[in-house]
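User: For my dataset I need records formatted as: sequence, then structure tokens, nothing else. Please produce one.
Assistant:
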Amino acid sequence: MRRFGWNANTYKSNENGNAPFSFDQAVIYSKAFKVRAEWLYSAHGSMRADSQIPIIGRVGADPNGRIIRTAGQAANDTVPQPVGATSDSVAVEVDGHSMRGFADDGALVYFEDQSTPPTEDMIGEIVVVQVATGEDPSDDEDILIKRLQRGSRDGLFDLESINGPPMRDVRIRWAAEIIQITPPRQARRLIRRGLA
């Protein structure tokens, strides 16, 4: 506190919540602590302006719906955390042209990595899903972006492609709502490639 020239009693009262502080004071504190003033003042958004989230892999399919990429990444690639994201947010890179016009080749798709089963309000929506290919969840790495529809019976779903035939009566491990899609040109500027 002395290092910044702040009154120790005032700062302690601000820090423990006994004395509210103005946004102008939050700006002063934020510069000292290298955090965003908006976060410090109202706990809104990410703590740091450069908060990064991981890219967990690539997602895509050819026009016939065959999966051409799966989740998983060797490098520690990251992108800035989008507005509305949480600590569970992740991104995938789109590979291929099966979602042309929605998420083009090279786009980033952000979602919450919570691994929860699909909910009723996801029916009819385009979501990120993990296809259940076997009994062991660790065997499943097929991640797709599809419109989720009810299947012919409970526990099965139809996955509609943007540019291809639907996948009928598929078991899925989890479904997640999309937070944001960043077009390819902007995505190339945002991605920080890690070391392999």
